[in-house]
Amino acid sequence: MLEYVSRGTYEKFVEYKSAVEEWNRNTSLIQGQTLNHFMERHILDSLQLLPLLSKELPTLDIGTGAGFPGMVLAISGFDKITLCDSNQRKIIFLSELKRKLDVKVDIICSRVEQLPLNSYAQIITRACADLALLLNQVLIVSRETGKSTILYALKGLSIDQEIKKAQEKFKFNYEKINSVTNADGVILKVTNISEL
After folding, report:
1. Ligand-binding site membership of 8 (annotated)
2. Fewer beta carbons under 10 A from the terminal one: N or C of the chain?
3. Which residues contact 176 (CB under 8 A, 6 or more apart)?
């Protein structure tokens, strides 16, 4: 998938890796052992959302951490993405990265429950929280519009248990899309979310 990005975009990903390496010494942005496979584990994993999302729709990345997947998508040309994390150090890192790489992206330091009212049509997340909590957060974010927001969650081995647990509290439709970077991973697309 990296062969489809421009040279300039690829160079920004290389700078991204350098910045993460530098900051990771003092701030735990990602697990250290994943740095050796940064392009596959973090960049490609994030880029697999590209064909699923609409560039036209406002998108929120919940619990973005070091910027995955939202910052990667913003670097790739998505300009309606908001990165949200409650960790101040990670937000400082992302703000510095935004400036350094000249990326058009909004960054908010907040818990989802305290986000200013806004209308997000798509929510993306990676290794952030279990599905039941994410569905609750989707409903919080879309509370003022009443429209059905679509959730795209990069998930791993526990997804079937998470779906079963979430179905005890929520009604929703879902589709599991196989991950291109992790044999045990899926992209879970969730629509029509409501509380039981």
Report:
1. no
2. C
3. 159, 186, 187, 188
Those residues with Cβ within 8 angstroms of residue 158's Cβ, 6 or more apart along the chain or in another chain: 130
Is 68 marked within a binding site? yes
Backbone angles phi, psi at 109, to 5 degrees: -95, 105
3 state SS for 73-98: HHHCCCCCEEEEECCHHHHHHHHHHH
For the chain, domains (ranges, CATH) are 2-195 (3.40.50.150)
Residue 37: φ, ψ to 5°: -125, 40
Using alpha carbons, select from 137, 162, 166, 163 the residue that is nearest to residue 151.
Answer: 137
25 in a labelled binding site: no
- Answering whether pTM is above 0.85, one says yes
Which has the closest alpha carbon to 35: 24, 26, 45? Answer: 24
Average pLDDT estimate for 73-80: 94
Q: Quote the pLDDT of residue 1.
A: 57
Residue 146 pLDDT grade (very low, low, confident, very high; cuts 50, 70, 90)? low
